[in-house]
Specification:
Blueprint: E1 6-13, H1 16-27, E2 30-35, E3 38-42, E4 48-53, E5 64-68, H2 72-81, E6 85-94, E7 98-104, E8 110-116
Parallel strand pairs: 1-4, 5-8
Antiparallel strand pairs: 1-5, 2-3, 3-4, 6-7, 7-8
Length: 118
């Protein structure tokens, strides 16, 4: 699996269903409704993400892109050495198959990491 390509993008919304309908109408994205408050979408065969419920206290929270990496642990170590910070450490999405993590760059931008076998 190539490292460094965007894997997944989360788009916060006050109403994930309404946000999904907007993008479905504008771009033809297909919607997958399998988790409450987290409406997944597919923008192409390998491109996609989700609309997630934005907490009321977090108005203005932006899009979080996820980048595919070979090793989250190695990447987070590089992040820390380069002046960034780990926000959320490596956690399983599907145990034994895929993991995610979140870091902040020195400018406060949050970027997700994805490591997976599929």
């Amino acid at each position: 699996m190539p490292s460094g390509r965007f894997e997944h993008i989360e788009i916060p919304a006050g109403d994930p269903e309404a946000a999904g309908k907007f993008y479905e109408t504008v771009f033809g994205w297909s919607l997958v409704r399998d988790m409450p408050g987290y409406l997944m979408f597919r923008a192409g065969p390998q491109d996609g993400g989700a609309f997630l419920q934005r907490p009321a206290a977090q108005k203005g929270v932006g899009i979080v892109p996820y980048v595919t990496v070979a090793s989250i642990a190695e990447t987070l170590a590089k992040v820390e050495r380069a002046g960034g910070k780990t926000v959320e450490g490596r956690s399983a999405i599907v145990e034994g198959r895929s993991w995610w993590a979140l870091f902040a760059d020195p400018h406060g931008n949050e970027i997700g990491l994805y490591e997976g076998t599929s």
